[in-house]
Design a protein that fits this description.
single chain, 33% helix
């Protein structure tokens, strides 16, 4: 098999895969100037939203509830060394989703 044919075959598989948007979730502890908080980073549109920690739930549940309230549908969860990752299929900027939810 030629390398071009191998590349073409791999490309066709990728095109058939479900495309998802990644939202990075990270907990930041309190500092001398700021309380505990949660950062949600929209990696596709390079936008960040900060949530004040409410302690009613763990930080991932708090982030999940917030994202669902503004209209995201969380499809999957993953984790790497630095972040928790929520995968969504909405493909809308997080700040636009938040603004639309606030205007309802």
């Amino acid at each position: 098999m030629q390398s071009g044919a191998l590349y073409h075959s791999a490309t066709l598989k990728v095109l058939k895969m479900r495309h998802l948007q990644i939202l990075e979730i990270k907990y930041y502890g309190a500092t001398n100037k700021k309380r505990d908080r949660i950062r949600i980073k929209d990696t596709r549109f390079e936008q960040t939203i900060w949530l004040s920690r409410n302690y009613k739930n763990d930080f991932l549940t708090q982030a999940e509830i917030f994202l669902e309230q503004i209209g995201y549908t969380i499809i999957a969860y993953a984790r790497n060394k630095e972040y928790s990752l929520f995968l969504v299929d909405d493909f809308q900027p997080i700040k636009e989703m938040k603004k639309n939810a606030e205007n309802k």
